[in-house]
């Protein structure tokens, strides 16, 4: 429900509810505005200012209550996250110290974290370093944790004694019996997708998606995947915990009943270079159980954390896909936000925002590191590359810059005589036999620092 800003009545609780306020909050706000409405514009200035101050004073308890409620919710959520991590078996001494501080000393979240930091400093043999307090001082919670783990502020040799004990514990520590080392890491431990790995053909890319993730419309991951050109050549598998694996968009489980046999049949005759896992919770644990059936690939990654981060990671993975005959350079693009706008660097090429275009749009230019325009380059197929592009939607600037940088980083030098010939009106961009000879001659005799013909600068 939306309301017209021109007809917004602060004394009406429905207007506040339409703007996202909870009903109980809307009731308080409407009541205060009813008691202290704005005076007419022709009223004396001191009376209008006095009315505003009275309304602010009346709303102060309400605003304080909202602030306290938000703080209680923050602390509750933080403690719940630690409890969940401990309950799942991911036990860390720092987490246990936080819960111990709340149970034994009744500390809130901030004080419990300081308590855990003090305990950790004492265990490691460090001097007390409480960065939350002024120099030379220590907060009570930090000091309590420091003392509980054997620290002593009055002992001159306290640091030497504790550091020696910490070193002895490291020497005497034997490897605890645990899980046997496996030949390959579990998918849950794979790193997040980035733009650093080398691009791969879509026909050599595989993505395994959890059934819960695939059915989560709000996350939008499947929408992003379906909108990506070239994804129809990839191998997409749905992992349904407790049931099995199936190819997407097929709605039926694979005919073979055993999940391991299902995966073995789906990967038969396939040698993927890229493997991505998009799953959480039970689906991810299900994939971990059958990790032995997954092929070893050049790049193995999985999305993680919040839905926003997973969407960004999925886009980074999708942008590394190649169609047949397409050539793109790999390597991490270094992004910089300057006063003039966004700028990115890959190898010897720099992409930057070059102000607005006329009559409309935004200009992107590709330059060399010395600031000269990146002219005289062509694709391995002989297509000249333009160092300038115009986009109409500024939201697509980063993606367009990345695509241009990868095309230029995989380009080869273009001989100036060949450039003049390929610019003929009757045959633009298509070299003939003599042009090919000039290009080969230029590549053999070129002594500059530019990449040799056929080489790809991956940014290293």
Kindly describe this structure:
The protein is an alpha/beta fold and 460 residues long. The protein has four domains: 5-73; 93-172, no CATH class; 188-322, Rossmann fold, CATH 3.40.50; 334-445, no CATH class. The chain has 15 helices and 14 strands. The protein has helices at residues 13-18, 23-35, 45-87, 93-105, 109-124, 140-148, 158-172, 211-214, 221-226, 259-266, 281-289, 307-318, 397-409, 416-422, 433-445; strands at 200-201, 205-210, 235-240, 244-247, 274-278, 299-302, 321-322, 334-338, 341-346, 349-356, 362-368, 377-378, 388-391, 412-413. A five-stranded mixed sheet has the order 4-3-2-5-6, with helices on both faces. It has a five-stranded antiparallel sheet with strand order 8-9-10-11-13, with helices on one face. Strand 3 (235-240) and strand 4 (244-247) form a beta hairpin. Helix 2 runs antiparallel to helix 3 (45-87). The longest helix is centred in the first third of the chain and has 43 residues, at 45-87. It is extended, with a radius of gyration of 31 Å. The two termini are 53 Å apart. Residues 417-460 have low confidence and may be disordered. Residues 177-197, 413-460 are annotated as: Disordered.
Secondary structure layout:
Blueprint: H1 13-18, H2 23-35, H3 45-87, H4 93-105, H5 109-124, H6 140-148, H7 158-172, E1 200-201, E2 205-210, H8 211-214, H9 221-226, E3 235-240, E4 244-247, H10 259-266, E5 274-278, H11 281-289, E6 299-302, H12 307-318, E7 321-322, E8 334-338, E9 341-346, E10 349-356, E11 362-368, E12 377-378, E13 388-391, H13 397-409, E14 412-413, H14 416-422, H15 433-445
Parallel strand pairs: 1-7, 2-3, 2-5, 5-6
Antiparallel strand pairs: 3-4, 8-9, 9-10, 10-11, 11-13, 12-14
